[in-house]
Amino acid sequence: MSIPASAQEVKSNIQISLDDPATVPVVIAVPRERAPGEQRVAIVPEVVQKLTKSGYRVRIEHDAGAGAFYPDDLYLAAGAKIVSGPGDLLDGAHIVLRVQPPTVSEVDQLDEGTIVIGFMNATNNLAAVARMRDRKITAFALELVPRITRAQSMDALSSQATAGGYVAAILGASNCPKFLPMLTTAAGTIRPATVLILGAGVAGLMAIATAKRLGAIVEAYDVRRAAGEQVRSLGAKFLELEINAEGQGGYARELTPEEKEKEQLMVSAAVARADIVITTAAIPGRKAPVLIIRETVATMRPGAVIIDMAAESGGNCELTQAGKTVREHGVLIIGPQNLPAQVPFHTSQMYAKNLHSFLALLMDKEGAIIREFSDEILTASLLVHAGEVCHEPIRALLNGGKP
Ligand code: NAD
Questions:
Q1: This prediction's pTM
Q2: Residues that are catalytic
Q3: Using CA atoms, how far apart are residues 304 and 329, in angstroms rounded to an integer?
Q4: For the segment 141-166, what is each residue's pLDDT rounded down to a tens digit?
């Protein structure tokens, strides 16, 4: 396969070949998610109704919505066709909507030229990306949608992180041996619990809001100073450090070794006084920063709980094990995976609305799939197209380079 010299070259070559869109109605297919623990579905009946009203044909695999409590008959009533398995689902489908990335064998079931939209988690899914390239599939990765104002309604990272932050706070509260609110009772006064949130992005802010609603005293820290105002507006205390590590696109940059040392000192003191610590710190494309070292865990109160939302990308706590709950020095350390799947009814609803907005960019006024992806949201999120990997860092990884 020849690799284009630049991402620009890929973009300018973007053309899709479909049957004449004026005569062929667009078929949108939604498979049942098969990844372990995945309860979400890419589309909900409310969005199916909008799509069918606009003239699209929607096929849903039998029981695709069951895990999120959307039964087949609701999809049917919304105008979808229910099909029994992947064969009937994918045959002749133009667009496939997914939550989790396809596996290599799922890619093999797709017709050449099919458009797949969903989270692609490409760095950890290189074999499937390569197969999509070789089978000339067009894949849009929702995690690559730029965080610009116009794309807010398509921002699935944010909608799902919001849910993740909420679930993390509930998980922390339900595993904490203390009440979160202050209580004044005939049996005495109970002091409120202290909750510390490390990383105040989308998930962290939702965790702060949820812990505040449960009545806890909430402290939070982020390397981006801009997060301070948002933290304070939620009624939490922002822990200040003389560091501002705001990097490209509003994301955090990696800290220097000196900055890391300062950060760890301050974080350690805050962690030691917390009953619940929720960590969400992440740097795009890199391993999560370690904010809580083993020695700090040993200083925590007995019964304290750490919910490490960065578990899947290496963990913010040195003792976290992804997908497991461990007890160390009397502290419960939970390394959850896929928290949004724990509230699948609403996360599917939000995700489906994100997809509906995204689909609007792909269609022209007549309801046909556009043939040139010139919109900056489409070019940024286009992962694979026409036999090429369009996202430079993933192309480099596939060619044996470093990210
Ligand atoms: P993320 O998941 O990449 O990271 C979570 C948080 O961890 C971030 O706030 C980051 O600053 C923080 N972090 C990283 N390293 C840290 C460290 N060493 N110590 C403490 N905290 C650390 O972030 P996200 O939630 O996806 O949000 C990233 C940015 O995008 C934020 O600025 C957010 O406001 C912005 N955003 C913008 C839009 C938009 O539409 N304009 C939408 C969503 C998010």
A1: 0.91
A2: 147, 152, 155, 158, 251
A3: 10
A4: 999 999 999 999 999 999 999 999 99
